[in-house]
Amino acid sequence: MSSSVIGQPVTRIDGRLKVTGHAPYGVEHPIQNVAYGVAVPSTIGNGRIVKIDSAEAEKMPGILAVLHHGNIKQLYRPAGSLEEMSRPGENRPPFEDEVVYYYGQFVALVVAETFEQAQDAASHVHVQYDAKRPLVRLDQAAIPNKPPDAQSSRGNAEAAFQQAPVKLDATYVTPVETHNPMEMHGTIAVWEGDKLTLYETSQGVVNHHNVASQVLGMPLESIHVISPFVGSGFGDKLFPWPHSWLAAVGAKHVKRPVKVAVPRTLMFTTVGHRPTVQQRVRLGATQDGKLVATMNDVLQHTSMVHDYLENCVDATSMLYSCANLNAMQHNVPLNVGTPTPMRGPGRTPALFAIESAMDELAVKLNVDPLELRVRNYAEKDESSGKPWSSKHLREAYQQGADRFGWSKRNPKVGSMKKGNEILGWGMATCTWPCHQAGADVRVRLLADGTAQASCATQDIGTGTYTVFAEIVADKTGVPVDKVKVALGDSSLPPGPTSGGSAATASVIPAISKATQDAIQAVLKAASKAPQFHDVDLKTLKMSQGRVHTADKPPDSGVPFQEILASQKLVGLDGFARTGRRHRSYPGDPGPEQQQDKYSIHSFGAHFCEVSFDPEIVRLRVTRWLSVIDGGRMINQKTARNQILGAVVMGIGMGMLEETVYDTRTGHPINNNFADYMVAVNADVPEIDVMFLDYPDTIINEYGARGIGEIGLTGCASALTSATYHATGVRVRELPIRIEKLLA
Ligand code: MOS
């Protein structure tokens, strides 16, 4: 494979637009005559609306409408299927009825000439409620008496645990975490006759399009979803949320474009969150540290209107070799907004528990925590019995340990000093499964020597535009900066959701095939061109941008643009459709069957150092190293950027983030950036990232598995383990707070 750009640190092709402010986010699209919608959130966490009195609001200046369940046409519940790309964030459409399931649920929408008028009037809509006390804490809910929502078992875990010479039994809790991307959610809805355009911020334009069609009861052809640039999405933008439908309904009602932006406070209720997860982990081991029993009893919350599963069973079942295992999970409905994926859903809380338990077991056994992982290394996926497609975790441990200086770690708690501070070193495994979805891609080669690629997938800030350009460049020889990429628009060929770290792995086969198809079209044209008039098409090739016969080097050939020009062609198209799991894309089954023989996962290891000042109980992260075995990196720069971002989130998860609800009302009391803290530069040390870069060709020809989420898994337990090493305090309930470290 000629690889001029693949694996290089290529600067993102949309970077200049972004840093100069020319890349419009959802609500920034310049739309004429736009009116402003401000949603009225419920101020109770459980109950019913008795009456909505909008008379005062309606008399206020600039008010165009006050909409609620009593005066809109009923919306429809969507099918809710991930496979068919018709999954909403929340099944219940807004304004379905008078029932209130959580604090912050939308109960009315005020539309006005200006944002300020709408906001002012929204506070004068008087809603009378019949309120009941909400249930908002997992630890106050009854354990459900129902079959588990997820389970994996092998051997006899209970018996093996009873007989194990060394036992660990501990419970770990990860709190609610709220999505806080830079760009908040928002929608502009524009009607032209019975056609609707939604300007969005979306991780899944095709999914959004499908759900809009179902919720609004409109044909797909009448809806256009546009989301060319996204100011990050970590799962919150995977599935559409109620404000999008309110914008559409509001705009129809006032016969003008309507913009509905979700303010930071409402990001804490109406666009999903990572649910609380409580895990009771039991590990049984032999004296020399071989796991003989693994149990994980998982409890998480969901909302009253939507079942969301934060699957911690899968990670538990595949991470280490253990003959006897039982992991099961129940979800419990609470009066909170609907949870949704947040970077590394399932694996991230699961690994906090499992990796913390491994560290605790290592302490019990007096074995080095890294050595304990190696002794329990899974040579295959024991949950499915399948071989790994590609796993180099042992090497990740080794390289990480060498680079970090792990052999210098004194295991004694509080023994490593630096001036007045105590150092703590911790490590943890990280992992994320590799998913792949189908994609349709169009590629065009043009007579001016440029190329175009288009697909309705989107770039959520990860570098998808650049990945498209790199693959086309690699196949055609057209320079990256001469490849124009169009994404984020439902009128383009359907593409996958940017979720599950799967976008790159999903689009590569389709980009590659579509590019080859376009090249084939050029070769066909060449075979009719004077330069190759008596040459058999089968012997023609295109490499480095030139058409030539296979027996001669590329520089003997003719630039493809000259072929197009000589045939008076503006451009030639290639198209490809690949399939995987989405039924809407029937593709060829070849790679699926090949892939189904393997368990395909990425792995890695985090190493971190904290420094603890016991005088003032100050804990700081001072060093971080992540070693990632994620297949081949298509772009070293954007890949590294993903791991850096994930580790920053991991530091936030470990030390700062927790959404707290008022148990009387269900109000998320820290719903702002002053009270809900995310990691900032002052919290983050220099982060060192190493990629092992072993191509995994089971997944695609370039061997790229995807790296958006893996970096966050394991982080929090590396941190709590380092904290234990420094302080002797084991934090099993995140985040690590000063008060938890006070002796
Ligand atoms: Mo990710 S949680 O699939 O955006």
Task: Describe the structure concisely.
The protein is of the alpha+beta class. Helix content is 25%, strand content 25%.
Task: Give the assembly state of these chains.
Answer: single chain
- The low-confidence parts are 581-590
Q: Enumerate the strands of the largest sheet in spatial order, edge to edge or round the barrel.
A: 3-5-1-13-10-11-12
Count the strands? 29
What is the CATH class name of the largest domain?
A: Alpha Beta
Query: What is the molecular shape?
Result: globular
User: Main β-sheet: number of strands, strand sense, barrel status?
Assistant: 7 strands, mixed
Classification by helices and strands: alpha+beta
How much of the sequence is in beta strands?
A: 15-25%
Features:
743 residues, alpha+beta, Aldehyde Oxidoreductase, domain 4, Aldehyde Oxidoreductase, domain 3, 3 domains, seven-stranded mixed sheet, five-stranded mixed sheet, 25% strand, globular, binds dioxothiomolybdenum(VI) ion
